[in-house]
Write a structure and sequence with these properties.
The complex is a heterotetramer, with two copies of chain A (339 residues) and two copies of chain B (274 residues). With 339 residues, chain A is an alpha/beta fold. Chain A is 30% helix and 17% strand. Chain A is globular and about 55 Å long. Chain A starts with a helix and ends with a helix. The chains are: A alpha/beta (339), B alpha/beta (274). The complex binds flavin-adenine dinucleotide (FAD) (2 copies), flavin mononucleotide (2 copies) and FE2/S2 (inorganic) cluster (FES) (2 copies).
């Protein structure tokens, strides 16, 4: 697995490069597979002085919506066992304000910027994609489908294969940018959704978004969050995320970007071995921002120590049916008979 | 001990996440503890009153509690390259922190946030502290006294045991206390003392719980006989990132939502949406 | 809220009693609301010498199946951040062996024994319910619908309202025992399932069962569990469980039994305030068996300290729409727009 | 310190979950530590070689790591009402445990599990230990020597630093070691030593990693010249409850699945499904 050239030096440089949109002429080539997740790294500028953003594989912006949003009332966050709940409510300047403000900063950066987009109607996703199509500084889109579809009575796009597919197709038709579709863990069958968005033209899928949770303030005798419910993230959700990445990686041929509770090398390796080509780090950025860069270094060390020439050599190694796409749903459910 | 403490780096260089080693702990105010730890020299030197640090409050073997906890800086010692915070054992994180012995290693992010702003023409500063709200105001009192200003420092607590010993404040400061049970100073709330000083003060600085802020505001607005002093308040919000990235710690102001970790924790009273 | 009689003594005794099957003539009256969960307390005898089983409100047996099962290969359990995964594979002696062995022991106990039943076909659930109907020592059934339905290609009963309803109706018709239906958190809409099983005759619902998760052994480069996936439980899942209990308690009128990550008083109060009439403790029994009895005592202390006469006074207090049953699904989804 | 230590209670009374206070810690075998803590007197007195305790390895403020960790009992001291375990810092739980100072409070469940069984007619006992597998066999060696039996104790480690100092064993025991790097005793695996003693032994007792058990079994089965001694092995499984309730720790035997926490951890080699 290790080439002559790599071996010649005292330490070879493992190959980290990953293209997350191999079928797209505009491609999405990352120098390494470590990406801060949407909502956890602001617009790439907030961690200056703490994280060397230029060393990252890429970063994903906070979710952008068609109109500006001031977000939910406070409190918006609370801690849970090995996790946190957030109900930020997609506070953002709206697509127009966003385009004016941030891509011009990113234009000179060498790290690719991925823009996360959210909407409550299929047309709105398409409109945003069209507006972003040729904005310098924008490398790719990540489509957040964990949003309520207004025309479906508020049912979440990401829980339904048809609705997920519609959003994906609309975005695909509106832009030539690489399109990553971010899956919701609330779907009863994440495989079905992943296959639907692959068929609809997604260049890659990312998962998981947050689970829906609640904490109750037992002194005030009401939910802690003003919004009542919030999105659960952090190490607590990692086992659910690894399972879903494993299942999706069996069922699609496009790259899978894994996330959910990653806090260091061991976690990241779990996702790669389950079948992720790249990973995102969300909540752990808050607790250990320095971990982002350390993770890139640790990954290099680990590949060298294990004499693995390329990260791609371990992608899916724990997953015998990786990229087989022939797995039947019933087989996967059968495996899920647990206790 | 400092991970990235190259002295050539900019104060806001890559060093704002660092490893500190506890060099001293001192019980104060009943069950609270002053925790002193090492920091990169430029951080200790650049830190100003009102700023805070975010600490991980768990062992490296555990992922729970997950989030950092913010603590106001109580004192800096640039010569010794140290920061001091005042910790009240309250819930999971602070209870862990007050148990850490000298020599323990802390994972620190900071200093973060804005600072109290003393107007150049101010002479008389009134400080109103409740409980561990004492911390950032103690640092401010030290800064102000060093500049030759007059400082009156009001502190409230449940009882005498919950007060800061006078020796912790610079001798030039007029230190007046109130306790709920009357075991020291005036019996009642710290804000009951405010009316006597509000006409004297050019600026008021406050840190404490939400109800204290409400009473303080009433006291200040009730003062109809002189120009009202401006009031700066250090507000408390649950925080995740501490750097403006998560939008979890917002404060509602007259000009919209503001991050309390970057645009705060110090806000002008008149800016806040009451 | 506190009656004269209760107040007369120095400390009144708070009223803990709860009937989990108020509409069933055979009723299910518990002296207190603390119940060890299925699979986490064996058959009520394993913790003798550690937990005083007779002080519990009730206990739930390990899941019983029509035929004996030797369970999954090892490893069957692994730890995750603030949680654990299990893939025991329903090891049990089968309904016949079970009836011979355990109910005779329980017959003389004053603590009600609830039998958890699992099957892969509707008829098998009914057969087991019929066999248990008049077995002395059995106080109620808990129907585990987080099982694959063989005749539906392995699709989980608990993810589909029609299948959930069929199982419930079949069990209802086969026994006069109180029937608790245990809901799966994998359903896309737990409310729909809860309402379906209420309509089909369930006396109560309990939730949540485990989430499906996976851990990967990065040294061996394969899933830790021999079964690949396992059920995630423990404090990590608590926010998901509280949210689901809150939602279900808005949508049904039968008692709700809450569980998922409860490790002490504060957690239990969250579930009561969300709308649970009783709670189950699973994983925490393993880490802190003594906590079960402590929880009963702490709950009494808390009620006394807060001058609350009856536990029922706090059930649902954090839930303005508790038992309103008029909530529309879209309202609930709208609330779920988080980040 | 013992929560439920009423001496009138049955040894298996309500006292099997108790609070112990660390009374001594002693580094041994390189980075491992002997941890001694208080226990209810009847538990210290009733505990037998092969049994284990399950410890919570976290502060009360944290829910992670969640599950207890099993540790074999290394020694009991009924007079001082103490138990001792031998802990190797390996992962999250054990790393936490070896850092706990004297005076720290431990949440203990146990003693749990079955014991080694020495046949009344046995005279010569061979013990084969790998790494921290030394612990339960040390307790067994002490019991056997007290009964006047002959004990040969074989211990294997990576290097000399990883061995138990001879002073830890009773003087009557023949103590022979092997190290992978040859820095002490025979160079190689501990099981390389077995063939020399297998004919002498009436019974063999073993505790160590899985590969050691496989080699040991080969060595014993290869002995074709005399009656094979019976072999008892203390096997290691990930555990949750420790009392037979969760069915997570099973061992496959010729007669089906057995709980390693109640029906084990000690099994006859011939009973195990190889
Ligand atoms: C800018 C800033 C500066 C600060 N400076 C200081 C300082 O100088 N000194 C200091 O001691 N603290 C300070 N704090 C507070 C500190 O950061 C922590 O919030 C505090 O120590 C509590 O954290 P914890 O982990 O101990 O408690 P946690 O266990 O996290 O509990 C904290 C929260 O949970 C809630 N809670 C706890 N138990 C329950 C329950 N059973 N039911 C419902 N709700 C519950 C509390 O109301 C509180 O909101 C500051 C905070 C901010 C934002
Ligand atoms: C009956 C019995 C008796 C025991 N007696 C003793 C004793 O006397 N002394 C002693 O020191 N120990 C003993 N143990 C072992 C002890 O209980 C713990 O298992 C051990 O200390 C490791 O726990 P930990 O929390 O330190 O490690 P953990 O962090 O929990 O790791 C333990 C498990 O995780 C796996 N693991 C760790 N890191 C990784 C990774 N990156 N990727 C994949 N897998 C990983 C390991 O292979 C191992 O299976 C005994 C065990 C049993 C069952
Ligand atoms: C505070 C916060 C805000 C988030 N905002 C967004 C968002 O705007 N869009 C989105 O797709 N995901 C958002 N997420 C979800 C994360 O990107 C990620 O999918 C999730 O947190 C799981 O990863 P983690 O466990 O590493 O945090 C947010 C998460 C957090 C914690
Ligand atoms: C080891 C183990 C075995 C379980 N077995 C069963 C079972 O047989 N039937 C069932 O309905 N639930 C079973 N459960 C699920 C629990 O009863 C409970 O629903 C779940 O663990 C969530 O609660 P907790 O977080 O308090 O553990 C099992 C859980 C564990 C951890
Ligand atoms: S704590 Fe994240 S924005 Fe302030
Ligand atoms: S550890 Fe639970 S049955 Fe053995």
């Amino acid at each position: 697995m290790v080439t002559e050239e790599q071996q010649s030096g005292e330490q070879w440089v493992p190959d980290f490069t990953v293209d997350l949109a191999p079928d797209n002429p505009r491609e999405l080539v990352l120098r390494n597979p470590v990406i801060p997740a949407s909502g956890c790294f602001g617009y790439g500028i907030e961690y200056s002085g703490i994280v060397d953003v230029q060393r990252l594989g890429a970063f994903v912006s906070k979710g952008i919506t068609p109109a500006p949003r001031s977000g939910n009332p406070m409190p918006r966050i609370t801690e849970t066992p090995s996790g946190m709940l957030n109900a930020i409510g997609l506070q953002n300047p709206g697509i127009r304000g966003f385009i004016r403000k941030y891509p011009p900063i990113w234009e000179s950066w060498r790290v690719p910027a991925i823009v996360n987009i959210s909407a409550e109607a299929v047309e709105d996703y398409a409109t945003m994609a069209r507006m972003l199509d040729d904005v310098p500084g924008v490398a790719a889109l990540e489509v957040n489908i964990s949003c309520p579809n207004i025309s479906a009575g508020g049912y979440c796009f990401g829980w339904d294969p048809v609705m997920s597919s519609e959003v994906t197709r609309a975005v695909r038709e509106a832009t030539t940018l690489p399109v990553i579709v971010k899956l919701s863990p609330g779907a009863v069958d994440v495989i079905e959704i992943a296959q639907a968005v692959e068929d609809a033209g997604a260049d890659a899928v990312s998962l998981i978004n947050t689970l829906v949770g609640m904490s109750i303030d037992t002194r005030a005798r009401k939910p802690v969050l003003a919004n009542n419910t919030g999105g659960l993230s952090g190490p607590a959700v990692k086992p659910v995320a690894v399972r879903m990445v494993y299942q999706v990686a069996q069922a699609v041929r496009i790259p899978v970007i894994g996330m959910g509770g990653i806090s260091g090398l061991a976690d990241a390796l779990e996702f790669f071995m389950a079948g992720a080509s790249a990973i995102q780090v969300g909540t752990a950025v808050f607790s250990e921002p320095g971990m982002l860069i350390r993770l890139i270094d640790d990954l290099g060390e680990w590949l060298r120590a294990n004499r693995i020439a390329s990260l791609s050599d371990i992608v899916g190694v724990a997953n015998p049916r990786f990229h087989s796409t022939t797995v039947r749903h019933s087989e996967i459910v059968a495996e899920m008979v647990g206790q | 001990m400092t991970e990235l403490a190259s002295p050539t780096q900019h104060p806001t260089g890559w060093s704002r996440e660092f490893i500190g080693e506890i060099t001293a702990t001192e019980p104060v105010m009943g069950d609270s503890v002053l925790v002193t730890f090492t920091s990169p020299p430029q951080l200790a030197a650049s830190c100003r009153a009102g700023q805070f640090v975010e600490l991980l409050c768990r062992t490296p073997q555990s992922s729970d509690p997950l989030l950092r906890r913010p603590f106001s800086v109580y004192a800096t010692n640039p010569a010794r390259q140290e920061l001091t915070i005042l910790v009240r054992p309250f819930g999971r994180g602070s209870a862990w922190l007050v148990e850490q012995p000298v020599g323990a290693i802390l994972d620190v992010l900071g200093p973060l946030g804005n600072t109290f702003t003393v107007a150049p023409k101010s002479k008389n500063l009134l400080m109103v502290a409740g409980g561990v709200g004492a911390a950032p105001l103690l640092m401010l009192a030290n800064e102000a006294v060093a500049k030759g200003m007059n400082v009156t420092y009001l502190l409230g607590a449940m009882n005498a045991g919950g007060l800061l010993a006078p020796g912790h404040l610079p001798g030039e400061v007029e230190y007046i206390v109130a306790t709920i049970d009357g075991s020291a100073g005036r019996q009642g709330f710290v804000t009951d003392l405010v009316s006597e000083y509000v006409q004297w003060a050019d600026q008021v600085f406050a840190c404490g719980p939400e109800p204290m802020f409400r009473s303080l505001r009433r006291e200040v607005l009730a003062n109809r006989f002189a120009a009202k002093p401006t009031v700066q308040m250090s507000v408390e919000r649950t925080m995740a990132c501490g750097v403006g990235a998560c939008l979890g710690c917002m404060v509602e102001t007259r000009r919209g939502m503001r991050t309390s970790c970057v645009e705060g924790p110090v806000f002008e009273m008149d800016e806040l949406a009451w």
